[in-house]
Amino acid sequence: MIPALYIVATPIGNLDDMSRRAVSVLQQVDCIAAEDTRHSTRLLQHYDIRTRLQAYHEFGGDGQLDSLFRYLEQGRSVALISDAGTPLISDPGYRLVRRVQDAGIAVVPVPGPSAVIAALCASGQATDRFCFEGFLPARANARRESLQALANEPRSMVFYEAPHRIVACLVDMADIFGGERQITLARELTKTFETIVRKPLADMSQWVAADGNQQRGEIVLVVEGRSAGRNDGMNDEARRLVTLLIDDLPPQMLSKRVAEYCRLPKKQVYDYILSLKK
């Protein structure tokens, strides 16, 4: 173990997802900085980790940050964990990481579970390019403004959403993105009542509104990106290949290869490529 700030991923539900390296690091560091010490205590007890625990969260102010930084300045090692999953994803830990890096102290990632990646890889949506938007604004007007700004986003979009806002969020998405746009709801990932369902947005909003069980727990949404020219005769596989290779091949060669692979007219593919270039 070198003196460093270790960014340690922890399970998002199933305790068996804890890596052996993560356990080893948490046992050896001098201090563990946790988002919620009461929540993390249960995890540490499960793995018989007895390292000193200290709170570090967005409401702790500069005092918590200064305390951890002084610890690291003394040549000690600190592990940063969140309530679940990979730290710094949708939390303010970057302030500590930036300060530590600026001081020339090592930052060591210990990768592991992440709700974003777990939802994306099981979503059935395109995974070659995606963007993570975290939690949308709680207020309706601000949420709709944020969604409107993403209406033409071509990449798959990943969101977190609170259970009490999920129905209103889905209704807004269907209204702004279009009811035919595909969305995957990934709920309670790795837990007993894990649910992963993909539907058109219009159908999903109705299904969730009619089933109270789908309005509980931790929710990740993966929304299909907007495809250019939906009435261009291109299928999803052809669009995916064009998106993947458009920066690597000239239009003539790319259209020929995609047309042959997907059994589409070459001119149709070529026109689609040109529309994206424009």
What does this structure look like?
The chain is α/β, with parallel strands linked by helices and 278 residues long. It has eleven helices and ten strands. The strands form two sheets. It has a five-stranded parallel β-sheet, with helices on both faces. A five-stranded mixed β-sheet has the order 6-7-10-8-9. Helix 2 links the parallel strand 2 and strand 3. Helix 6 runs parallel beside helix 7 and helix 10 packs across helix 11. It is globular, with a radius of gyration of 22 Å. The mean pLDDT is 91.
Keywords, separated by commas or semicolons:
5-stranded mixed sheet; 278 residues; 11 helices; alpha/beta; single chain; 5-stranded parallel sheet
Q: How would you state the average pLDDT, rounded?
A: 91
**What's the number of helices?**
11
Give me the side-by-side strand order of the main sheet.
Answer: 3-2-4-1-5
Approximate helicity band: 40-55%
Distance between the termini: 52 Å
Low-confidence stretches: none
Q: What global shape is seen? A: globular
Residue fraction in strands: 15-25%
Would you count the extended β strands for me?
10
Structural class: alpha/beta
Q: Could you give a short account of the major beta sheet?
A: 5 strands, parallel
* Rg: 22 Å
State the order of secondary-structure elements, H for helix, E for strand: EHEHEHEHEHEHEHEEHEHHH
